[in-house]
Amino acid sequence: MDYEHIIYEQNNQIVTITINRPSKLNALNAATITELHEAFKMANMDLEVRVIIVTGSGDKAFVAGADIKEFVRFNQIEGTQLSTRGHQLLFDYVENLETPVIAAVNGFALGGGLELAMAAHIRIASDNARFGLPEVSLGVIPGYGGTQRLPQLVGKGRALEMILTGGMINATKALDYGLVNHVFTPDELLNKATDLALKISANAPSAISAAIATVNAGFDVNQNGFEVEKQAFGSCFGTADFKEGTNAFLNKRKAEF
Fold first, then answer.
1. Is 135 annotated as catalytic?
2. SS3 for 7?
3. Which end of the chain is more exposed for a tag (fewer CB within 10 A), N or C?
């Protein structure tokens, strides 16, 4: 599939999706959100793909927010629809993918950019990365999950400070807050993301998917995470991955999933 705003690259079991609007600091417009949805969907449906890495083109920004020009004249109904569509196509969609997603944050991750990174399952960053939710300076609030996922990751107090001030934090503070797992130099970032992806891809795909769903259930008020875990744990026993993994362990060989 041909894309205008993103680059889709596959290297064996790893897909890298690069948001490619460098002149706009990779800002998310409606077309880019749609393309991202299609790219994530295609990667998730490909049984060969074990991990997805998402990053931004250039060295200035991962995603420096949403494209304000697209919604500056929206009314209340249109604003609600904008948020709902974004959740469905991208942010909730990414969070609930069966295939693990690593956000390799290079440069600015602001507004929708930080919200996309937070929807990913794992975040790593370059040491020049900057994180923030500046929406209140525009008279609006984060609408793509920022008010929900940021407190889950950094705690209520820190999240409210970031949201209410609209300020940015650097990569060191993001690491301290637990917003990202690791910080690397810009030159190291994608190689380190690939290293992490390779470690994940060596494990059982069915167990990886079950683990994502189970962890997510613990943050869903409509689910009992412990009950979901029990059922998912039991379901693992009926998979070919379980048979391969346990047989490999007992026979002292490397599992081939």
1. yes
2. strand
3. N
